[in-house]
Specification:
This protein is mainly β. The chain has four domains: about 240 residues, Peptidase S8/S53 domain (Rossmann fold), CATH 3.40.50.200; about 140 residues, Jelly Rolls, CATH 2.60.120.1290; about 160 residues, Sandwich (Jelly Rolls), CATH 2.60.120; about 90 residues, Sandwich (Immunoglobulin-like). The chain is built from seven helices and 42 strands. Helix 2 packs parallel to helix 5, helix 3 runs parallel beside helix 4 and helix 6 crosses helix 7.
Length: about 700
């Protein structure tokens, strides 16, 4: 069944028609789609995705799991739709499995390679999650090699085939091997060599059902597959204890790699002796044509709608922000290729929450507003890469998948966490779309972003920003560049950190004797509705128009424009701070705490400048006079917005009563025109007279007068 955008949108209205019968009961796909391309109209763009203006095609392959054929069918459908629409396309595959040869030769991986062979098509795939459990083993198979598995005592899950473990072994050539499995109570199943392969079932009495398969593979390098599948039959369950698989090799020693691809036994996990975390990138991420995404940590704590702050780990010093996620799969492929390709944010990701998913007991993961939820996995890293590829294709629709992979890997950021790249944990480093775009313009371009943090890891103090109070942090850039952003850390929800309907005002000053001196550039105004307590709020400062010089002190100053409103900010509870100051309403004075405000400076080498947008996108807001004016029966209203955000246009009568909402949606920066037909919200014609139309977008608001004559 295929549903159109109009049908899906109708279901989101106040009177849903009930025509769309598919639901995301698992919630995974909704979260992924929101990260890649959600426009987040409900919360004014606060949680918008990487490419919020992209079109989205969602293909449902199943509820949680689905066959390989559904993935291939989804690729085919996506290709057909892109061709019909005449648009480039990026397919996000936040899925994968450890079973298989890990060499890019599965049917779905061959389909991916075919898909990306045409320009304008890209596929990003999750590298896979290990959940901290070693699952790979590698070595050389001599005359006899034994693999040992431990099944713990566990409480079985109900149903048939729901308690199982599967070991998949791949030998690099056909050496006439035989394989024999032994259960803890002595049951045996042996599959001797056969040129066409053989499978032998073991006992299903006391120890559960197990199957040994010994068969030629479908890989291009002539690998041979041996597998052990231990499972329940609904009555007999895999018994706790030691299981073994012995492979006898009459020929020359041969390299092998094996994976404990399935480990779940009720509330327990089977384990493989001698296993490691290497070569755990899953299929189809091992496809040559795929961009495989690893995951790193970007958030360690977050606010919940139950007015509490939650964290991954309360152990002091356990914060892994910026480091690789412990579950992120490690390369290389079995045939020795580099995987993963790149890393992206994948732990602590807030994105759209499916209204059909079961969130029982997950209150601690659900954000204020109850429209977004925290999740983690390389599944969450992949849509960041997908959105980045979509942004590139939006500007360069004929780019090839190979060229986009090269752009992303060449432009990836490195730091103390990534170490020397490429490596089998991080790929080529952390996703950096600005650097990738810059290299599309000029391969020699280097764009660096530096965050200046003078606060540390000590406990928090709370500072109230209200009335005429101002707070400042002095920063000294180590390289000249454009001040492109800042972060502001607000108190957790239990402290009610945002009070009132005012705006945060962000300014940049020169520094004079350690406190703000002369104001530079323009103020940046941020409505409170864009801020969130209990987290690090990123604020774009391109609108300030400020460039900074290496080695010179500058000050970021924050205040509120409504004296009765307030923000509760975090600072570091230290006594030796040297970069923070406070304005008490009459004068500035340095303070010994460290305000948790951090400047971000971007330095371009190889491009002329960094700005809010290019290609003729406007940098100013404007609301033009309607035309014609006076009018009857319709008039046109032209307007310009400088930055993507929620845009509303409303009409009021001369008494200030609301007449009609002409627009209320998120729009990208640009110039637009809308028509008013002289009717109110009930679609009834209004009388002759003077009316006012008001444009609001971000902190910009303007009202013009128009006249209707009949």
């Amino acid at each position: 069944m295929e549903y159109t955008q109009a049908q899906i949108s109708a279901e989101l209205g106040s009177s849903p028609p009930g025509k769309v019968r598919e639901q995301d009961t698992f919630g995974h796909g909704t979260h992924v789609a929101g990260t890649a391309a959600g426009n987040d109209v409900l919360l004014t763009g606060k949680f918008s995705g990487m490419a919020p203006d992209a079109d989205i095609i969602v293909v449902k392959g199943g509820n949680g799991t689905f066959p390989e054929s559904n993935i291939i069918d989804g690729l085919t459908y996506a290709q057909q739709q892109a061709t019909a629409l005449g648009k480039p396309i990026v397919v996000n595959l936040s899925l994968g499995a450890q079973l298989g040869p890990h060499d890019g030769s599965t049917a779905e991986e061959i389909a991916i390679n075919s898909f990306v062979s045409t320009a304008g098509r890209v596929v990003a795939v999750a590298a896979g999650n290990n959940v901290g459990n070693p699952s790979h083993i590698g070595g050389t198979a001599g005359a006899s090699t034994t693999f040992t598995f431990t099944v713990p005592t566990y409480t079985a899950s109900p149903g048939t085939g729901t308690n199982q473990f599967i070991f998949d072994l791949w030998l690099n050539s056909n050496t006439n091997v035989s394989a024999s499995a032994h259960s803890p109570n002595g049951s045996t199943a042996t599959a001797t060599y056969s040129a066409t392969g053989v499978s032998i079932d073991g006992s299903s009495t006391a120890d559960g059902l197990f199957t040994v398969a010994n068969a030629p593979s479908f890989t291009s390098d002539g690998a041979w597959e041996v597998s052990l599948w231990v499972r329940d039959d609904g009555t007999h369950y895999p018994v706790a204890g030691t299981w073994t698989l012995t492979v006898t090799n009459p020929g020359s020693p041969v390299r092998y790699d094996g994976w404990l691809g399935v480990q779940t036994l009720g509330n327990g996990l089977a384990s493989l002796s001698g296993a490691d975390m290497n070569e755990t990138v899953t299929a189809p991420a091992t496809a040559i044509g795929a961009i495989a995404a690893a995951a790193y940590v970007t958030k360690w704590n977050w606010p919940s709608y139950v007015v509490s702050q939650y964290t991954y780990d309360n152990t002091p010093g356990a914060d892994r922000t910026g480091n690789i996620a412990t579950f992120s799969a490690i390369g290389p492929t079995r045939d020795g290729r580099q995987k993963p390709d790149i890393s992206a944010p994948g732990e602590g990701i807030a994105s759209a929450l499916s209204s059909s998913s079961d969130t029982t007991g997950l209150y601690w993961l659900i954000y204020p507003g109850q429209k977004h939820i925290i999740d983690q996995g390389t599944s969450m890293a992949t849509p960041h890469v997908t959105g980045a590829a979509a942004l590139i294709l939006g500007a360069f629709p004929s780019a090839t998948a190979a060229s986009i992979k090269t752009l992303l890997t060449a432009g990836a950021a490195t730091d103390a966490f990534t170490g020397t790249v490429p490596n089998m944990t991080w790929g080529y480093g952390k996703l950096d779309i600005l650097q990738a775009f810059s290299k599309m313009i000029s391969p020699s371009t280097v764009v660096t972003r530096t965050q200046y943090a003078y606060d540390g890891t000590a406990a928090n103090n709370l500072d109230t920003l209200t009335g005429a109070i101002k707070y400042a942090v002095r920063f000294t850039p180590t390289a000249s560049g454009r001040l492109t952003g800042m972060t502001l850390n607000l108190a957790g929800p239990t402290f009610f950190p945002i009070v009132g309907n005012g705006n945060l005002k962000c300014d940049v000053y020169t520094s004079a004797s350690g406190v703000p001196g002369t104001k530079m550039g323009s103020s940046v105004i941020v409505p409170f509705k864009y801020l969130l307590g209990g987290t690090q709020n990123y604020i774009q400062l391109l609108g300030s128009g400020v460039s900074v010089t290496s080695g010179v002190d500058f000050e970021i100053v924050v205040s509120v424009d409504n004296p009765s409103s307030k923000l509760l900010m975090r600072s570091e509870a230290v006594t030796g701070g040297t970069h923070s100051s406070k304005f008490n309403g009459s004068s500035w004075a340095t303070v010994v705490t460290n305000h948790r405000i951090r400047a971000i400076v971007t330095t371009p080498n190889g491009v002329s400048s960094i700005g809010p947008a290019g290609g003729g996108v406007p940098e100013e807001y404007a609301l033009d006079q309607n035309y014609p004016n006076p009018f009857n029966p319709t008039t046109r209203i032209s307007y310009t917005i400088a930055e993507r955000g929620l845009v509303s246009i409303d009409v009021f009568d001369i008494l200030g009563r609301h007449v009609s909402t002409l627009l209320n949606e998120v729009q990208p920066a640009g110039s637009y025109e809308i028509t008013w037909n002289g009717r109110n919200n009930e679609n009834l014609p209004v009388t002759s007279g003077v009316y006012f139309y008001r444009l609001r977008s971000g902190s910009f608001a303007k009202t013009n007068k128009m006249v209707l004559l009949k």
